[in-house]
Design goal:
The protein is an alpha/beta fold and 126 residues long. The chain has helices spanning 16-28, 39-48, 65-74, 90-98, 111-125; strands at 8-12, 32-36, 53-56, 81-85, 103-106.
Length: 126
């Protein structure tokens, strides 16, 4: 990847307030961010473009986040996945990680922590 090219992030989130907040703060870091507001569009976008990261809600209209994660992991290209969800039980977190998520952040969340986790995922991917 060209060192000057900004990172490409896909956010798949159906809550308009959360989506706006996440997109705004990721763009403030200089990253290029696309938004999908349902699972079907999100899966199509993730499969159709070369993103450096997917920020993925679990509870989505259409295809749910776990199914999206599973399908992306079954594909040929690896992309880091950060699950961002209201499901906060230990079982939910373990399931998300076992399905292939690289990190898991529960709502409500700190925007600073979200940005720090994204940066950490990019460091690990390098």
């Amino acid at each position: 990847m060209d060192a000057a090219a900004p990172r490409q992030i896909l956010v798949i989130e159906d809550n308009p307030e959360i989506a706006e907040l996440v997109v705004l703060h990721l763009r403030d870091e200089g990253w290029e961010v696309d938004l999908a507001t349902d699972g079907d569009r999100g899966l199509a976008a993730a499969r159709g473009s070369k993103y450096d990261l997917v920020v993925l809600d679990l509870m989505l209209p259409g295809t749910d986040g776990l199914s999206i994660c599973r399908r992306l992991r079954a594909g040929e290209r690896y992309v880091p996945i950060l699950m961002l969800t209201a499901k906060s039980s230990e079982l939910d977190r373990v399931l998300g990680l076992e399905m292939g998520a690289d990190d898991y952040l529960t709502k409500p969340f700190s925007v600073r922590e979200l940005v720090a986790r994204v940066k950490a995922l990019f460091r690990r991917a390098e």
